[in-house]
User: Which sequence fits this backbone?
């Protein structure tokens, strides 16, 4: 296998973009899932944020206030947990072990270990 040079700046910047995109998308995803496209558009219009060019503004006493406040403009203090971030990290953390004459990859999802050859098993 040939070694390749890795530019750490490119990796860091790509990861920052992934995190930023997930945080920008969290309120959008919440509104879309809860009420569909019309709900999202109505919220953004009410927030005077159409077209969306920044993080989603918070409107108090709304669904987003209850479930997505920490991903709204002015309330970001850290990256909120997100399934897309988790699924990006899991493959890099999964230990590979030798089983018989083949490798089996174990990935931890919540309380379940999934293996390629055995399927999920509760921990």
Assistant:
């Amino acid at each position: 296998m040939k070694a390749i040079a890795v530019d750490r700046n490119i990796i860091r910047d790509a990861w920052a973009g992934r995190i930023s995109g997930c945080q920008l998308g969290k309120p959008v995803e919440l509104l879309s899932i809860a009420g569909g496209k019309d709900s999202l558009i109505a919220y953004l219009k009410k927030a005077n944020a159409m077209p969306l060019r920044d993080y989603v503004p918070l409107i108090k006493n709304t669904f987003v206030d209850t479930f997505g406040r920490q991903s709204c403009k002015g309330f970001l203090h850290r990256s909120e947990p997100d399934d897309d971030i988790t699924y990006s990290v899991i493959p890099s953390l999964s230990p590979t072990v030798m089983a018989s004459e083949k490798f089996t990859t174990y990935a931890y999802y919540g309380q379940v270990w999934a293996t390629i050859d055995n399927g999920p098993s509760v921990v």
